[in-house]
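**Fold tokens**
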Amino acid sequence: YARDGSRPDVMTVDNSVADDLKKAADDYRKKDVFDFRAFNATKVELTRNGQTVVFERVKGQGETPDKWRRVSPNAGDPDTRKVEALLAGLADMRATSFADAKTKTGLDAPALTVAASFDEGKKQERVTFGKVGNDVFAARTDEPNPAKIEAEKFDEAVKALDELSK
């Protein structure tokens, strides 16, 4: 049963509404760390240890597929499959929980910052990662508190970035 505080009437509500009211606020929060996907990313800047690596998608002509180009720090043509694997790994990151204001997140000294452009450059997002011990946190600019993510996924992304930075 439910009642509107402005009226004396009592109404019956579906059980699903009552179940939804029992959920914690974190159950309604966005769990995806990134909005972009490997197929719609057009430019990605990854900053780690003071070095920024920039990749841009180069449109293919005719039957030629798109490819990725490393723009900086040293221009080159990395293996497109490896760049797409890195981007897919980043895009697959999801929050396992959310930190409160007192939690040490390591974001004051970021372990990695990712700035991505996607949807033909119409959308941008920036996510900063912090690491404390074995815990990894990701902070989006549009979310109030950092998300805790799987450390293994973060470590895989860093390893892939290191390989592509050579």
Q: What stands out?
A: The longest helix spans residues 151-164. The chain has one domain: 33-164. The first strand starts at residue 2 and ends at 3.
